[in-house]
């Protein structure tokens, strides 16, 4: 199980930060999706890893920050064949939220929310 808490070599390519949003020129994979930050806090780390692994892959944001209200496009290699993925976001204090078992073959957009101690995602 991956470790994370919230207040109480993956074949991903993230483009460069452009006006608060990411863009990528990479060849699209079937798992490509957009993460929208509607949590009300800035996201300092964003990890996406196959659900079948026990470790988080590298931070997709690198040294960038996904500001509250902004979004990032996450692009996979065309050769990627994993279906189920886990997503972790971390704020500046190291608090993290994890969403597990996301079928990225069926999701093109994940809007992340956090209000009154409760986290959820609207998945499209």
Compact summary:
With 124 residues, the chain is an all-beta fold. The chain has strands at residues 12-13, 17-18, 21-22, 33-38, 45-50, 71-76, 84-90, 96-103, 109-115, 118-123.
* Total beta strand runs: 10
Are there runs of 5+ residues with pLDDT below 50, and where?
Answer: 1-27
User: Which descriptor suits the 3D outline?
Assistant: globular
Q: In angstroms, what is the radius of gyration? A: 13 Å
Percent of sequence in beta strands: 35-45%
Instruction: Return the string of H and E elements.
Output: EEEEEEEEEE
- Tell me, rounded to a whole number, the average pLDDT: 82
H/I helix tally: 0
What characterizes the major β-sheet?
Answer: 5 strands, mixed
Strand arrangement within the widest β-sheet reads 1-6-4-9-10
Overall structural class, as computed from helix and strand content, comes to mainly beta
List the helices and strands and how they pair.
Blueprint: E1 12-13, E2 17-18, E3 21-22, E4 33-38, E5 45-50, E6 71-76, E7 84-90, E8 96-103, E9 109-115, E10 118-123
Parallel strand pairs: 4-9
Antiparallel strand pairs: 1-6, 2-3, 4-6, 5-7, 7-8, 9-10
Question: How would you describe the overall organization of this protein?
Answer:
This protein is mostly beta strands and 124 residues long. It has strands at 12-13, 17-18, 21-22, 33-38, 45-50, 71-76, 84-90, 96-103, 109-115, 118-123. The strands form 3 sheets. Strands 1-6-4-9-10 form a 5-stranded mixed β-sheet, with no helix packed on it. A hairpin with a 5-residue loop joins strand 7 and strand 8. Residues 1-27 have low confidence and may be disordered.
């Amino acid at each position: 199980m991956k470790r994370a808490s919230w207040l109480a070599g993956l074949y991903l390519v993230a483009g460069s930060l452009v006006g608060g949003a990411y863009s990528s020129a990479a060849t699209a994979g079937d798992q490509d999706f957009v993460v929208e930050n509607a949590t009300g806090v800035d996201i300092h780390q964003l990890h996406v890893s196959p659900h079948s692994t026990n470790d988080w892959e590298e931070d997709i944001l690198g040294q960038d920050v996904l500001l509250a209200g902004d979004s990032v496009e996450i692009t996979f290699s065309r050769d990627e064949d994993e279906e189920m993925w886990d997503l972790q976001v971390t704020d500046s204090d190291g608090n993290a939220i994890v969403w597990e078992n996301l079928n990225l073959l069926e999701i093109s957009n994940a809007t992340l929310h956090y209000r009154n101690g409760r986290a959820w995602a609207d998945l499209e």
